[in-house]
């Protein structure tokens, strides 16, 4: 057994696929393949998976996620059809239009998930800039990046979890979580930059994060209401939907729950306006406008 092997844990019934990040004596440090989970386990507790059975491409990570991507693509096509019908009806002629989807700033504490996320943003035509930033440094990074990038949507995610050996307090205490305090700090810095939840949308958290604390800090959407593991790319799905939801429309978690793998147990939030704008007449280089 060596670094890079794909494994499951016998003691957990092989429920989650991991990749061995490194080995320390007789223990392996593990990184979830589909879920934002860092763990450690004795080598004797691990079972190697056949690499041919591990689909590392994000589109193949699970049938549920592939369905989420399909629904996102369908919603974009429906929005385009609605725009064109509106123009044809009002002008009674076939005029074109241009699109200004919401811009995403994505900070991720995991470089592998960041690469997957940026690939999918590109496939979904979502304008996005992504940065690998360790969770403890995200607040400082946002303080520097927000004035430069001026995003419509901010995603702060990475790894989190309820600590096995809590110093004090229970699930209600931020000290019981690996990185929830760092995510809260990042959200607070972002809200100092822009207080209006519709002018800048924030999606925050990872596996088992302190959902209530993130909402109190100013997040629009956060994980994890039931303190469960969330799919690695669930935050991306919410960001992509908001990027292509009209500024005239308000959506709630009930409207987008089907776009996530882990549902309302994994993510929740407050009603939020979209960040997409239609412009007329059509122009060739939309990026010149945004």
Automatic annotation (TrEMBL):
<dbReference type="InterPro" id="IPR008764">
    <property type="entry name" value="Peptidase_U57"/>
</dbReference>
<protein>
    <submittedName>
        <fullName>Sporulation peptidase YabG</fullName>
    </submittedName>
</protein>
<dbReference type="Pfam" id="PF05582">
    <property type="entry name" value="Peptidase_U57"/>
</dbReference>
């Amino acid at each position: 057994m060596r670094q890079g092997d794909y494994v499951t844990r016998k003691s957990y019934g092989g429920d989650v696929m991991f990749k061995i990040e490194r080995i320390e004596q007789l223990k392996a440090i593990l990184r979830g393949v589909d879920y934002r989970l860092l763990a450690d386990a004795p080598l004797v507790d691990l079972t190697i998976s056949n690499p041919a059975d591990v689909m590392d491409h994000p589109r193949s990570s699970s049938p549920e996620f592939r369905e989420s991507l399909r629904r996102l693509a369908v919603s974009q096509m429906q929005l385009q059809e609605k725009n064109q019908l509106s123009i044809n009806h009002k002008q009674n002629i076939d005029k074109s239009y241009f699109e200004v989807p919401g811009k995403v700033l994505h900070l991720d504490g995991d470089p592998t998930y960041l690469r997957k996320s940026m690939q999918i943003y590109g496939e979904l035509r979502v304008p996005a800039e992504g940065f690998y930033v360790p969770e403890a440094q995200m607040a400082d990074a946002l303080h520097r990046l927000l004035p430069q990038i001026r995003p419509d949507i901010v995603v702060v995610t990475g790894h989190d979890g309820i600590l096995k050996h809590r110093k004090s307090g229970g699930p209600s205490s931020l000290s019981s979580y690996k990185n929830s305090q760092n995510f809260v700090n990042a959200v607070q810095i972002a809200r100092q930059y822009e207080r209006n939840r519709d002018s800048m949308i924030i999606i925050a958290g990872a596996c088992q994060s302190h959902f209530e604390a993130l909402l109190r800090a100013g997040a629009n959407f956060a994980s994890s209401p039931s303190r469960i593991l969330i799919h690695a790319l669930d935050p991306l799905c919410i960001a992509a939907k908001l990027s292509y939801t009209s500024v005239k429309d308000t959506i709630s978690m009930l409207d987008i729950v089907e776009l996530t793998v882990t549902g309302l147990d994994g993510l929740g939030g407050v009603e939020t306006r979209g960040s997409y704008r239609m412009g007329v007449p059509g122009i060739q280089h939309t990026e010149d406008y945004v």
